[in-house]
Design a protein that fits this description.
With 171 residues, the chain is of the alpha+beta class. It has one helix and eight strands. It starts with a helix and ends with a strand.
Length: 171
């Protein structure tokens, strides 16, 4: 009888320890799997997203004289970026756009919705529609108050999920 009572108490103690261990480990495992799932979804989005800046040019002619080609009164730099990924890029106005000069400095150019009417700012048009979908090109127009000097420039475009491309050009 002594052995039976000891065995029953040990079994009960083992069950209590097992329940305590499960109650301690399960929530941590559940939280970890949620975080892993979220990280996996973000990585999947990044893998499916890809852009390529295909060309950039300013409103300067061959003699490096400003030509207001679109008659808006501003000096513009035009940048063409192509969505080469397999997902549609939403909220293109939330992209970050940077312009760098040959002196090594970078300037962030705000979208016109966030520039408060100040220049420089940028806006975009999407070829053949309103969505920046797969294999679609977006033209970005960066407006300045006056013409940029001739030289080497770099454009960096970062889409909302962090994917970016950089393009070097000269004017």
């Amino acid at each position: 009888m002594d052995k039976a009572l000891s065995t029953i108490l040990l079994v009960i103690a083992s069950l209590v320890c097992a329940v305590l261990a499960i109650n301690a480990i399960y929530p941590a495992t559940s939280i970890s799997s949620g975080a892993l799932g979220s990280a996996s979804a973000q990585m999947g989005d990044r893998i499916k997203s890809q852009i390529s800046i295909v060309h950039a040019a300013g409103e300067l002619d061959d003699s490096e004289v400003w030509q207001d080609t679109n008659s808006d009164g501003n000096f513009d730099v035009f940048v063409w970026a192509k969505n080469i990924g397999i997902t549609t890029i939403d909220n293109a106005e939330n992209c970050d756009l940077f312009l760098g000069g040959d002196d090594g400095t970078w300037s962030r150019i705000p979208h016109e919705d966030y520039a408060g009417g100040e220049l420089p700012s940028w806006d975009y048009t999407i070829d053949s529609g309103t969505e920046w979908g797969q294999e679609t090109t977006m033209m970005i127009e960066i407006s300045f108050e006056s013409a940029l000097s001739s030289g080497e420039y770099r454009i960096k475009l970062i889409i909302p999920n962090g994917i970016s491309d950089e393009y070097y050009f000269s004017m």
